[in-house]
Structure formats: C-alpha cells, structure tokens
Amino acid sequence: MNYKMMGRFMGRILLVEAAFMLPALLIGAYCKEDDAVKGFILGIGVTVLLAVGLLQLCRGAGKGFHAKEGLVCVGLSWIFMSLLGSLPFYFSGEIPRFIDALFETVSGFTTTGASILPEVESLSKSILYWRSFTHWVGGMGVLVFLLAVASTADSKQGFTMHLLRAESPGPNVGKLVLKMKTTARILYMLYIVLTLLDVVFLLLGGMSPFESVCTALGTAGTGGFGVRNDSIASYSPYLQNVCTVFMFLFGVNFTCYYLLILKKFYNVFKDEELRLYFGMVLGSIALIVWNLKGYYSTLGETVRHAAFQVVSVVTTTGFATTDFDLWPNFSKTILLCLMVVGACAGSTGGGFKCIRILLVMKNLRRNVQKVLHPQKVQVVRINGQPVAEKILDNTNAYLAAYTFIFLFSFILISIDNFSVTTNFSAVMACFNNIGPGLEAVGPTCNFGAYSIFSKIVLIVDMLAGRLEIFPILILFSRSAWKHR
Amino acid sequence: MNYKMMGRFMGRILLVEAAFMLPALLIGAYCKEDDAVKGFILGIGVTVLLAVGLLQLCRGAGKGFHAKEGLVCVGLSWIFMSLLGSLPFYFSGEIPRFIDALFETVSGFTTTGASILPEVESLSKSILYWRSFTHWVGGMGVLVFLLAVASTADSKQGFTMHLLRAESPGPNVGKLVLKMKTTARILYMLYIVLTLLDVVFLLLGGMSPFESVCTALGTAGTGGFGVRNDSIASYSPYLQNVCTVFMFLFGVNFTCYYLLILKKFYNVFKDEELRLYFGMVLGSIALIVWNLKGYYSTLGETVRHAAFQVVSVVTTTGFATTDFDLWPNFSKTILLCLMVVGACAGSTGGGFKCIRILLVMKNLRRNVQKVLHPQKVQVVRINGQPVAEKILDNTNAYLAAYTFIFLFSFILISIDNFSVTTNFSAVMACFNNIGPGLEAVGPTCNFGAYSIFSKIVLIVDMLAGRLEIFPILILFSRSAWKHR
Asked: Based on the number of CB atoms within 10 Å of its own CB, is A63 exposed (0-12), middle (13-18) or buried (19 or more)?
C-alpha cells in the first residue's frame, strides 16, 4: 500500500472540504447566527489542522498506485469527509448527538436525504445551506472535483483513473475524453450549468433565492434534503413540476449531455440505458395514475403527484409532494421496486442502476439461449458494442454483494423491533441513497428513533450504496491492509 | 423439438400419476367417503384417457433428445400433472372452485404447503391422504420415479440425464453412480427408508397410523400440508421434536446419505454445504432463543419452538407449532432470510439452496481478490474441487432470474391491495416452496382471499421455484417452440 500518496491525497481532500465550508460560514455571519458560526469555525479549524498534519506527515511519495489503493483511498476519504463534515452540525448544537450529526452528514454526502431531524424549519440558514450543499458535492463526487481543479503534479493517468473509477457510479466509467482531468472538468461544468438552470427556473416560479439555491443543490445531487418540513408539498404546482423535470434530468447519464453538445443526437436517441430509464419512468407513472383513480380531485393533480414521486424515487432523490405511504399497495410496491432499480450510471442518482439491469437481463437471456442453442457463440451487446466478460462477471458479483449486504443489514437493524416493512424500506432507502422509506420511516417521518447500532449499520449502507459497495467492502478485507 | 418422444414420455408420467391415485381411492372406499370416491374415479378416468391418447398419438419416436427438450418436457409434465392431480379435489366437491383446487395441487406437488383452505379437519381422509401424498412424490420428483421403475427402452443415457438434471434441485445433479437409472433407484430407496423411519418414530409417540403416514409424507417432501387445523401445534413435544429432526434430515443432500452407506464419513464431515446448513440452523436457533427470552415459560419450550420453526422454514417445509407472526421482528426477519436461503441441493427442500449461496459468495470473494491481486489466477473451489466457470455463470444467472421473477410477481400480486409485508412474504413463501408467510398469509391464515389472477401468478411462482426457474422460463421463450 502506498500510504504516503494516500495520506497526501486525503489531506488535500480535507482542505477542499474546509474550503467548501467557507460559504456556509459567510452565510452564518451575514445572518448573525452565532452558534452556527461557532460550529463552522471549529469545523473548519479541526479539518484544516488534520489536513495540514496529513500533508506534513506524508511528504515524499512512494511509488506505484494501483486499483486497490484507489478503492481504499476513496473509501477512507468518504469516511473522513463525513466525520469532519458533521462537526458544524455538532459544534453549533443544532444536532446535539454526534451519531445523529454523522448520520445526517453521511446522508448528505451520499445524496440519500434520510434525516434524523423531526423538523428542519428551526435550523439556522447556514446549517440548512451546508446540509443541502453536501448533497451537491457528494452527487458528482469530491474526488472528481479535486481532479478537476488539482495541479497535475500527482495526476498521472493511472492514479487519477483508479480514483475516478472508484468514485463514479456505474459499471464502467464514462471516459469522455482521453485525459481524466478534462473529463472531470467537463462533468463539473455540465453539473454547474444544469444546477444554475434549475435555480433560474425556481426563481421564475417565485421561490426565494435562498430556498431556490438549497432546493437546486438537493435536486442536482439527487439528494432530497429540503428546507421545509413538508419537503416540496407546500410549493406551487409549477415549482413541483420544475423539480420533477430537473430530478429526471440529473438521473440521466452525463455522457448523454456531452454527446448532445457534440451534436451526436443519434447516439443519444439510440442509447439503450436511456431508453430503459425513459420507458420505466413513463410506464410507472401510467400504472400509478391508473391505480390512484379517484384519490385526487383532478387527473392533472394525480399525474403531477405520480410523476413527482416516481421521478423522485427512481432518481433516488427522495423529495415528496404527498405522503405516498398512504397510497394503495400496488403504487407503493412499484415505488419500492423503482427504489432498487435507480437511475442511470454516470448520473448523480443511486440504486442498482439501469445499465446493470440491462447487463444482468442480457446475461440471463444468453444463459437461456445457451440451453436452446448450445453450439451458438453468444455475445452480450450494449448499444451494438460487445460487453467484456469481465464487466459481466463484475456486474454479477455486484448483484451478489448487493443482495448479501441488503439481507445482512435487514437482519441487523431488525433488533430494534420496528415492523418488517419499516426495516426493509429503511435499508432500501439508505442503501439505494433515496431517503424516505415506508411506515415509521415514511415521507412524513424520520430515522431518529433507531438505536445507535442501527444508525451505524445504515451509515455503512449509505456509504456502500454511494460508492457502489467495493470501496467499502474492501476496507473489511484483511489482505487489503497487508504489507508485502 | 422431438414432440413424439415428449408426448410419449408425458403419457407415461400421467399413467404413473393415475396409479398414484389408486391408494387414495382405496382409502376412500374403505372409509365409505362417497363424494371423494367419485372424485378419484373421475380423476383417474380422465388421467388414464389422456395418457392413453397421448401414447397412441405419439407412437414411433423421432430421433434426438437435447437439453432443451428435457427442460420443456419437465415443465409441461409438471403443469399437466398439476391440472389432472387437482381433479379429485374438484370433482369430490371438497374444493368447489377449480382455481383453488389447482392452487392446492400445485402447492402439494411443489412441496410448498400453501393452502387456500381455511380449515382441513372437515376434509375426507382420502382427500387428506392425496393432499399429503402429492408432497411426497413431488419432493423427490415423479420423473425421477419414472426413471427408477421404467423399462430401459427409452432410457438412453442422454435422455434420462437431461430429464433428471431438469427436475433435480441444485446447480449440478448429484450423479451418484454412472447409470442414471441406478441413481434414481438409490435416491428413491433412501427416500422410502427415511420416510418409513419417520412413520415409526411418530407411531412410537402415540400418533394414529393415518396421521403418522400423512405427517411423514408431508415431512419427507418438506411440503407442510398437515391433517390438523393448527398444523403440528397440538401434538406432544416429543412428536414435535421428531418432526424437527426429520425435517432437518430431509433438507440434507441425499448424496451425503449415500456416502454414509459407502462409509465415506470423512467426505460427509468435510462437506462445505452441509457445514453451512448446520451452522446456519444452529446459529439461527441460538439467535431466536436469545430474542424470545421471556416469551415462553421455560427455556426448553423456547428452544423447541425456535428449533421447529427454524428447521421448518429453512427446509421450506412450512409446518408450524406456534404463530411466528407474533414473534418479535428480529426473529421474524431471520425466518424471512432463511426462507430465501433454503436447504441443501439434492434434498427435497426448496429455496435458493445452500450450495448456491456458497458459489455466489466465493465468486464475490474472488472478485474482491482480483482487485487486490490482479496478477493472481483465482479458481473457485467447493470441497477442494475446482468449480467450472460455466456453473458459476449459471449460478449468477440463476440469482438474476430469481430476483427478477421475485420483483415482478411482487408487483403483480400487489394489485390485490394486501399489505406490503403480506404480498412480499406470499411471494417469498410460494416461490421458495415454503407455505406460510406473514400477516394475512401467516401460519394461522391462508391464501384463499387472493384474486384468481394473483393465484395464477403464485402458481407459476411455485412451479418455477420447485423446478428451479429454467424449465418454466423456457416455456415462455419463443425460440424453444420454433421448428428448425
């Protein structure tokens, strides 16, 4: 293990995080929120101290940086980022218990949006802003950000590739251009432009500037933290529809936007993952509208609520305009299944990802075809291109890991004796980075009642879900830590 | 497709089934149960007619019989067997609706044990016997039986192998000896001996001969149909413990018993699947006993109930001595997870099977190791033997198929608007061939309230679960039916 390089990298990540806290500090100072200001100053202080210490300790790099180091580095970075990111919540006294502050921060960075707070309107503005901002930076990834802005000293191809691959969602990273640094920059540019567009559309609907920014940050990261207790329910239909559209857009693979800029419309039109995503969303909305007949006063209202909740769940955002826990069970079941599926790879959304569904389905189809035509050689193709067997094998291993971690967490948190549906949907909501579940963790409730032990389990689930399991799984593997 | 050979084979299967109905007919005649006798006579008549028709129609065999034909043949046989096996229930008037009779029969043959009957004690004895007997023959498989007794005219190696492989549970068939016919005979001999032993132990505990036979048939097939409304609850602790032990024994891979006869004790002792099965059962019992502290009056009673329910669920039998739906949620969650795991391959139990858990886990471990040591060639081994990549790939495809069918069924039956837990556990209980689920389909309830549509979905699930998905999946594949 190249500890020096890892340490130096993590030091820089923490410096970036400290810098990210500065705007929140300024907001706090502007609004005269003394406790929050104290929280941010302490948070920034500790973070900078630790970062400088790490950078000093790890001067003079060892050689060699492999996939293993990339995974471990990403896993550890996210854990440290979360620990330090929770300090403002804790030191400001607005979330008095550290485990709750940590849960909230992890939920933020992983773009889950599950909260332990029974209500958020009494929080100070700077804290609310920081809460929403964790979504934004967590959505695209703080390592990707660092790559985009870093000097090229450490940015050798292998190094950056391993990191980008470990942090980006999806089975194979969408390498837009040859150079990783440029890819990271393009991704962040697209991300910033789309977020700004969202802010503009929200402002046009009469939302206050502060709420517009926070809502857009939460939408962009497909996170789900809102600034009102009833999430998006009390906003106008226009504002709700803006959220629906932008949640949907942030669930699309960013490669598609890059292709649109390059005017490769045909490639986008023919993209199999995008088609599955589109079809699934439209189909689910239609089924739920049919199932909700008579539930709302007009068809328009039904479509609006159905579309909002479907998009919110499939992109794993977790905003709500209505309490879907009260919907009939068919609609609830569709939403539960959409939670598993998730959005497209290379988006800010979580879940199992549409592309993996495609890969697993096509591999299954191939297995059936093999029985029918044993002589024929079968190749799995996506968008006409053959998929490497290694990626298929990896996707299968991912499904296996997903299933085991899911069941294991489900058992562990059931010790708290909440209902089966509550526990099941809690794991679902955290592991897939959605936010609200059903029953005691439904859209109008929160995760505060779980024990410290269960919260730790769910924190690990959120991290494993956001980082796509392996960077976290590998931290538990003894041979990852062995010196050779 | 070799339709002639398939038709002739199915004709013979139906003749065997008609023969199996004879003892039930005799019991009915002896007990003077007129309606039941009428039902069996009509049932046997229709079955024999159809069988003779098929045999006449398909004289003179075409050549060639491949894996594809084996799968289709097994899938169709089970569907026809179920349709005809339900006739006595229907014609006797004891289950007035045909869909319910079919559900009960499929539940019997697939050794599920899910019932649509609110109570069973008013059924006539011959019907109760037939209900339990479907478990017994379904457990080991009626095709395996036919292979064991058939003349060797059709029994070319390829033909029998494809059939045995398609009907036997587990990723690769345990070919005990070189000749399939002998393997089938050994399996049925072991099965009969163990069943008789069970009957003897039940008789020693003072159970009536009729109830002993029916209970033993239900235990041997790991089915779960009982002859009393409260399943096994009203029997003495001794009788309950006998059931626990024998359910456990029928969940073991029968190859292990054959190895014991050959005195290869060391191989049995070292068998990884057996060790996982043992460990899982003991661990689950311990955890549930801990969780149930204070729930029953004595520790002995707690252990008895915990052991019974754990073994009943993991072997997918579905007998009950207590209503585990009232247990705390941790215990319920453990039982839910055990439902997925299931028993050993090559046993009469259902579920995902311990060996597949091992294979999927080891493949996952290999994928993690590949990241850590990219240069090293890694081979998955079971009991020291390398596992073919083809089997690993197939197991992964099985997990994928399992997950999709599960979610799809879950959505379909949720149209009936039962609770999420009810629907989830109903699919779990049917697809894994267990029997009772939770809440509205819990141990003290039944499946009668579901709509016809949901019952058909659950029937398909039961068949897919028993035949390990592919023989049923392939029936839906267009290219299986294409003439070339």
From this structure: exposed
